[in-house]
Amino acid sequence: MDTFVALAHGMAIAVQPMNLLYALIGVFLGTAVGVLPGIGPALTVALLLPVTYKLDPGGSLIMFAGIYYGGMYGGSTTAILINTPGESASMATALEGNKMAKAGRGGPALATSAIGSFVAGTIATIGLAFLSPYLVDIAVRFGPEDYFALMCVAFVTVSATFGDSPVRGLTSLFIGLTLGLIGIDKLTGQARLAFGVPELLDGVEVTTLAVGLFAVGEALYVASRRHHTEEKIEAIKGSLWMTREDWKRSWKPWLRGTLLGFPIGALPAGGAEIPTFLSYSTERRLTKYPEQFGKGAIEGVAGPEAANNASAAGTLVPLLTLGLPTSATAAMMLAGFQQYGLNPGPLLFAERPDLVWGLIASLFIANTMLLVLNLPLVGLWVKLLAIPTPWLYAGILVFATMGTIAAKPSVVELSMLAGFGVLGFLMRRFDFPIAPVVVGLILGPIAESQLRRALAISLGDPMTLLQSPISATLLAVALIALIAPFVLKGLGRFKANED
């Protein structure tokens, strides 16, 4: 009952005209920057922090949350239409969404993305309000060995799911894990794989890698095949909106994606990348239309997008209750709290309940604004595909370069962007999956630090990984997921030989 009263009080604060304006500005900016390769919500919040220094703290935080939600959705637009995720969490959406767009079904793909985002965001925000104390209690029980085991599950699932060959998936993953080693070792302070280049001491930027592999790599691949077998893209084929069959195939993935995204997003070291890829692999296993995966299955868009937006609400659970950011944007929001002299945590709920509950209530409003803003624009976004291919991909290269320069102006960073673009082209050319590289870079350093913490606590005893029931269970799941594709492939060959 107390939660209902607090939420009602927060809604009264969130619907004040000025706060509604802040939410609208945040949602619009988040969507706008989400569709630009390389410029995500974290960078936008960082750029706006100095501007909002003298503004109302509650309004500013509401705007930052709107940017977060808008950026999560906006990243899916270019992921679907031109295979260029605006955010790393939109990579799973690009796998099937872009195939749908090339088949003239960009409208239904964008529609299921928008509606799934609204459904997942609304359910997850309700979860944030009512379940956060319980989820935080579970998260606090996780030890470093449990986090490492969770990362192993994510690694194996991603590697085994994408592409026709698990070995190629694992190869891509290890490329990403190697890139994650570049920079200063946080435990010893020693430089690793920096080769004397000062810009590499901070490590490889996720944005640079994602934009290079997806945007630049896609542009190079399209250019290489322009006079070979030019791909005919149909901007619109059939209905621009979702059919009854699309609705039937989407609503269950929306709910499953929400159930994956919210709790994993609420875990420290969670984030949006893990649940989106887990959602994709889950839908691929459960679908009644396995032959459509890899060719444009709507379930592969609905599930990951729901997981993406549910995790956005989930990341606010540890941020508000523990002061623990689990994503780059959450870290920027933590800086926003601190610039107003506020420290997120249990005391914040007691000292500033109006601010906390006003922020939570504003997420419902931001979700509704996103749906109202983006559904009418589906037709406009789909028309991007009608732009001549040379113009479109030239524009992608310009925006990719501008985004990289805005995030980190450096000749070395631009050289890395070009290098990753060539790598992305070669991986497409030889049929290596790209997503595991980015996942390896994002989660590799987290897995390494958690493993080293677990070993330090146990004085170097590796058996500590099996002593925790949670860790042992997760490692068993990872082992089964690793072996299963090879076993199934072997059985398939055996059956084929018998036939």
UniProtKB/TrEMBL annotation:
<feature type="transmembrane region" description="Helical">
    <location>
        <begin position="391"/>
        <end position="409"/>
    </location>
</feature>
<feature type="transmembrane region" description="Helical">
    <location>
        <begin position="355"/>
        <end position="379"/>
    </location>
</feature>
<keyword id="KW-1133">Transmembrane helix</keyword>
<keyword id="KW-0472">Membrane</keyword>
<feature type="transmembrane region" description="Helical">
    <location>
        <begin position="430"/>
        <end position="447"/>
    </location>
</feature>
<feature type="transmembrane region" description="Helical">
    <location>
        <begin position="109"/>
        <end position="135"/>
    </location>
</feature>
<dbReference type="InterPro" id="IPR002823">
    <property type="entry name" value="DUF112_TM"/>
</dbReference>
<keyword id="KW-0812">Transmembrane</keyword>
<feature type="transmembrane region" description="Helical">
    <location>
        <begin position="61"/>
        <end position="82"/>
    </location>
</feature>
<feature type="transmembrane region" description="Helical">
    <location>
        <begin position="200"/>
        <end position="223"/>
    </location>
</feature>
<feature type="domain" description="DUF112">
    <location>
        <begin position="20"/>
        <end position="438"/>
    </location>
</feature>
<feature type="transmembrane region" description="Helical">
    <location>
        <begin position="147"/>
        <end position="163"/>
    </location>
</feature>
<feature type="transmembrane region" description="Helical">
    <location>
        <begin position="170"/>
        <end position="188"/>
    </location>
</feature>
<feature type="transmembrane region" description="Helical">
    <location>
        <begin position="467"/>
        <end position="488"/>
    </location>
</feature>
<dbReference type="Pfam" id="PF01970">
    <property type="entry name" value="TctA"/>
</dbReference>
<protein>
    <submittedName>
        <fullName>Tripartite tricarboxylate transporter permease</fullName>
    </submittedName>
</protein>
<feature type="transmembrane region" description="Helical">
    <location>
        <begin position="20"/>
        <end position="49"/>
    </location>
</feature>
